[in-house]
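Teaching assistant here, posting this on the class forum so everyone can see the example we discussed in section. The complex has two components, and the goal was to see what a joint structure prediction looks like when all of them are supplied at once.
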Amino acid sequence: MDRVSVQTNVLKANQEIATENRRFFEGEGTVVINLMSAPGAGKTSLLEATIRELRGRYRLAVIEGDLQTDLDSRRIQALGTRSHQITTGTVCHLDARMVARALAEFPVQGLDLLVIENVGNLICPASYDLGESLRVVICSVAEGAEKPKKYPVMFHKADVVLLNKTDLAAASGVDLRDLETNVKEVNPKATVFAVSCKTGIGLDSWVAWLRDAIASRIIAATART
Amino acid sequence: MDRVSVQTNVLKANQEIATENRRFFEGEGTVVINLMSAPGAGKTSLLEATIRELRGRYRLAVIEGDLQTDLDSRRIQALGTRSHQITTGTVCHLDARMVARALAEFPVQGLDLLVIENVGNLICPASYDLGESLRVVICSVAEGAEKPKKYPVMFHKADVVLLNKTDLAAASGVDLRDLETNVKEVNPKATVFAVSCKTGIGLDSWVAWLRDAIASRIIAATART
């Protein structure tokens, strides 16, 4: 079997498991976010800021995907939120089977929100459905305005794009409007938030949007029962 | 054949072609750099700054690897340096065969320096030998100090690590010494340069190092003939 056929089979098998994961999450009325970005764009910082706003009001948990180290998982646990580590070794993305295995060890029944923080990679994670409800992509302003054009698959499939580190825009010489225009060119339907996890600017709009998404899911799940 | 066996065969086939590429480059006395980083760490900016210092004195060319767009290749050509674009589509890394095919279309005989700018990805490109003489990794300070620990394979195999965007260190809240310590922990043999392609700080040391590398290669090639 050649490489392309193997890859096609891998993605097909992944889709079947992702569909099972999605059925489980929908049955629980849980909003599941697949959080993706390049290395160091601020996934864990966004999670920390989001957890600080939502904890106490919602039942939350996090699954952390990393090649190595449990540094991120410990940052989440330090906030009093449950977190499970998936260490992928050399694998450059999470897949649906890894998530299904994690669920066997890490009970997530009855959650309002589960965030799956993917491996830092702006390419391959876009191809692997995990069973999520929402795909959230973070782009660091410091990476430059042309990233959406250069990594279109990731941006094309995103429900939400967060432009993070806006506090570095001037120092990086990046025009935030150019970056947002490039996101919209690749994906006109994406909801875009410009934020700084460091200063907190823009996070209120993101958190309000997320609260609405959780509320809609809870209403939908209640209607089904 | 399962996925792991296919991957093993792919890497074995890649190694054979990389060895042929390397033999060709060595015969030409050309220093070949495989330039790797996460998206937006500054590969093309480093190339622009390096070309400005070396052009006129050395015979240079660039091969650009990108998922989409020829934005980077056009930046290089704007400096009067020959550049060839490899567009990978959805493939997250360059491989030796892509480089061999590029060489068939893009003559590089007699060059002093060929830089192959890889796809922006801190994971998969580390596994594919292209036939290069040197592996140069750029890490943006704005990505955070812990990146070498979280992406160890890429840093472990690097000959040179450039810590770029040092002008953003204070604003990013990143201690440059922590970042350098983490690089050295993963790879004590790497030559490390702290630079800012924006302000120019530190680039003179990198360019001096590269000139020495080119000189050694020219001497070695002359000795062989």
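For the discussion questions: Chain A has nine helices and seven strands. The two ends of chain A are 46 Å apart (CA to CA). Think about how each of these relates to the inputs above.
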